[in-house]
Amino acid sequence: KTGLRLSEIAIGTQPQARHFPRRNRIISGMARAVVVVEAAARSGSLITAKNALDQGREVLAVPGHPFDARAYGCNALLRDGATLVRSAEDVTEAIGKEAQSTQPKPVPQQLPKPERSLRDTSKLHREILARLGPSPVAEDQLIRDLELPSQKVTPELLNLELDGRIIRAPGGLLSLAK
Fold first, then answer.
1. What is the pLDDT of residues 94-123, one digit of tens each?
2. What pTM was estimated for this model as a whole?
3. SS3 per-residue string spanning 13-70
4. CB-based contacts of 91: which residues, under 8 Å, 6+ apart?
């Protein structure tokens, strides 16, 4: 219901591959870091990584098998100095370093009240965990099943993932951690 639409392309324009680098330049400029998970030698992900470097952003990469063509770009980024990603902790650590290097924000006199109480948060955690099992479930389907806005569910999914309670698989699939 609330959000931001920011584009160099007119609204209603059909998606085209040639527009992706312009869109991704905006995204990388708004991000603290860019994580490249898979990139062939000629990949749009490498264009986004270059934009991020030009914008002074951190670039992180997940390594791949040296004989897998889909891993060539990530391995090249790592060779050239990108930060190695082995786990979610590597990403949060890199983002944390980036956040600490920026100017500190003034501490408010009175802390703002959280949008949701701890009881509500733990209730949502319980609901999420109750709907997940060992078989992966699509994240968007889980959000629909919970009948809550993605803005409320997605941060809780990240918290559960960082706590090691759920596992995120490629393709936006979620399952309980063992």
1. 888 655 555 555 555 565 555 545 455 578
2. 0.53
3. CCCCHHHHHHHHHHHHHHCCEEEECCCCCCCHHHHHHHHHHHCCCEEEECCCCCCCHH
4. 33, 35, 60, 85
CATH topology of domain 118-176: Arc Repressor Mutant, subunit A (1.10.10)
Q: State how far Cα 166 lies from the chain centre.
A: 15
Residues whose CB falls within 8 Å of the CB of residue 72, separated by 6 or more in sequence, listed in order: 39, 40, 41, 64
Looking at this protein, which amino acid is placed at residue 115? Answer: E
- 10: amino acid identity, one letter: A
d(CA 164, CA 178): 9
Considering only the top CATH level, what class is 17-87?
A: alpha beta
